[in-house]
Amino acid sequence: MSATPAHPSTTTPEMDKAERALIDESTRIPVLLFFGSAVFWLLVGTLFALLASFKMNAPHFLDQWGWLTFGRVRPAHLNAVAYGWAAPAGIGVALWLMARLCRTPLRHSKLLICAALFWNIGILLGIFGILSGDGRSIEWLEFPNYASLMLFVAFGLIAVWAVIMFRFRQPGHVYVSQWYLLAAFLWFPWLYSTANILLNFEPIQGGAQGAVNWWYGHNALGLWFTPIGLAAAYYFIPKVIGRPIHSYYLSILGFWSLALFYSWNGMHHLIGGPFPAWMVSASVVASVMMFIPVITTAINHHMTVRGNFGALKWSPTLRFTVFGAMCYTLSSVQGSLMAIPSLNKVTHFTHYTVGHAHLGLYAFFTMIMFGSMYYITPRIVGWEWPSARLIRWHFWLVAIGIGVMVVALTIGGILQGIALLDPGITFMATLDYTKPWLLLRSGSGILLTAGHIVFAVSFTLLLLKAGSKRTEPTLFGSDQGRKPESLVP
Amino acid sequence: MNKMPVIIIGAFLTFLSSWIGLVAYPYLQLGRYTPFTAEDTGDINPPPLSGMAVMGQRAYASSGCIYCHSQQVRQAGYGSDLERGWGARPTVARDYMRENPAFLGTMRTGPDLTNIGARQPSAMWHHQHLYQPTVVSPGSIMPSYRYLYRLQKIEGQRSANAIDLLPPDNPPDGYEVVPTYEAEALVAYLLSLNRNYPLPEAPEPPQQ
């Protein structure tokens, strides 16, 4: 084990382009099934988000149908984007990464095709269930049992597949992305089954439910989405730049400290609530300790990119991924600070938390997924992205959209929180502080929706192999005939 | 870190620690309460829910009230919950023993509902408010829950459970608005929300 092992693709020149193409091709059907359905649910989830946001600006908007009441559209949004878009996009990226990093063609793709089928039936049933009134109102676990069971079956199939793939890997170095993926494949089924059994199938007493709810809610982000996002960042940043990750030891420290501390964070959602002080304190401490994995990873990524920031000008993959990696640092630091009781007093129960959630799941995770899909999809389809202009529009619409949304919810949330703390301000007046910011949030939602439509169009055109065949990857500036300084395949 | 067992066992153990601390232990400590019977009055607290209120709990979950309303009164020093009159005492785990699910909530776009049954003890008020919230509470951004009500022609006498509505939602002459079973259940649940009873671990402070 050398001190700074290089990125696998650079250490193995014998694994030539043809071999990579063979592996890429073997992943085509399962990965495209997950990507395609993810893009579909992204559009559906975005529509629910817009509806929910407009309803906060105009409460009478579409209030005649129970199916579209705020209290159903909002969880429909969360579940459509978290389980319909983010998770399958992450699974697609994870499948491809596993095949590439195990350096073996994807085996048993039938397992994965079944999983994709079960997964999407589960999402469809779940969203239908929430809208028709079967939702459980347990945040992050709203799906009725008939839907969550489908997701669990799908997930079980994927986890079995991951273990098989890992057994058949080419001997040699196990890259940091694989640690994260393996751990995520172990953690999530455990997490999802425990929480669903204790809260939905055989509910425990109410007094203990909050703890399990937020143990799940926080770990779904921390031990499922985060590891996949980081695995992708650890792969694509060095890949595009063409040089190894800065430090192997920082990678190890980052991985194990994340595993240890993140899993204990959940109770910081319940500060001041009806729970023993030690439980909440343990989570506050663990949340602050998250500075270790976050700063470690941030340094590692930054030092890898350093000197190559120019590549952000031409590589869509790198631009989305670096944006996401930076927002990982930002949202995690924000999360640690929000867990400190004196600050939590202000932000708890306000829109600030909603802004934080979007900084994490969107600005970090979703942006990295976009970046990864820009890299992977042309390689498995055998067709380049049809237009660099569409990619540029996509980037700027969603980057500005999410930026405005987080700023609006952060300011609105802080004003709301300060007002809520002062019993001299009537409750109705606390609402007035948020109204203009909620309007701005709807505006940012329109930008994001436009960005998603552009992405969906671009993705569909690629699948249809529209336009003339390009021989070079579609990079920013390639429409104008400019050539980037360095091109890495 | 080139060995699969190292990663798997390490990931297993770190996660197991949080499973024990935040799942198994809370279940053992907070998930096995029995109600408390006061020796002097014989009151059982928290009081059992009526069948109608249990149905109302489901309606509360189904309509997603939790996305704007919390049900927890925090201790002094954590926000102004007590000063706002949302409860006479902070809530404790035993208060939620009959709740399924426990609607603790994470958002206060609307006020806390832990004790809404004590603050608003009138069923008619709740029906009016659910039907026309922005009329009953000006400035509110709560949506109307009129899909839980029925507009019907008055046959003979006006129904006993018809609700009184203010303009612009009042029904045309000869018609009345009556709650569906789900609305009746939801209001029964809201009226049951009253945690101003004493528990050994949470004595009610003397009334001022």
Show the helix and strand layout:
The complex is a heterodimer of chains A (489) and B (208).
Chain A: H1 8-11, H2 17-26, H3 28-57, H4 70-102, H5 109-132, H6 145-167, H7 176-201, H8 206-241, H9 248-262, H10 277-289, H11 291-305, H12 316-338, H13 341-347, H14 351-381, H15 388-421, H16 427-463
Helix pairs in contact in A: 2-14, 3-4, 3-5, 3-14, 3-16, 4-5, 4-8, 4-14, 5-6, 6-7, 7-8, 8-12, 8-14, 9-11, 11-12, 12-14, 12-15, 14-15, 15-16
Chain B: H1 4-30, E1 36-37, E2 44-45, H2 51-63, H3 116-119, H4 123-131, H5 133-136, E3 149-153, E4 175-179, H6 181-192
Helix pairs in contact in B: 2-6
Describe this structure in words.
The complex is a heterodimer of chains A (489) and B (208). Chain A has helices at 8-11, 17-26, 28-57, 70-102, 109-132, 145-167, 176-201, 206-241, 248-262, 277-289, 291-305, 316-338, 341-347, 351-381, 388-421, 427-463. Chain A is mainly α and 489 residues long. Chain A is globular. The model of chain A is unreliable at 1-6 (pLDDT under 50). Helices cover 33% and strands 7% of the residues of chain B. The interface between A and B is large, with 87 and 79 residues.
Descriptive keywords:
heterodimer; A: 489 residues; mainly alpha; 16 helices; B: 208 residues; two-stranded antiparallel sheet; two-stranded antiparallel ribbon; 6 helices
The arrangement of helices and strands of chain B along the chain is HEEHHHHEEH
- Which range best describes the helical content of chain A: under 10%, 10-25%, 25-40%, 40-55%, 55-70% or over 70%? over 70%
The most extensive interface between chains reads: A-B, 87 and 79 residues
**Over the alpha carbons, how many angstroms does the gyration radius of chain B reach?**
22 Å
Number-wise, the strands of chain B total: 4
- The number of distinct helices of chain B, counting runs of at least 4 residues, comes to 6
Catalogue the unreliable spans of chain B: none
- What can be said about the biggest beta sheet of chain A? none
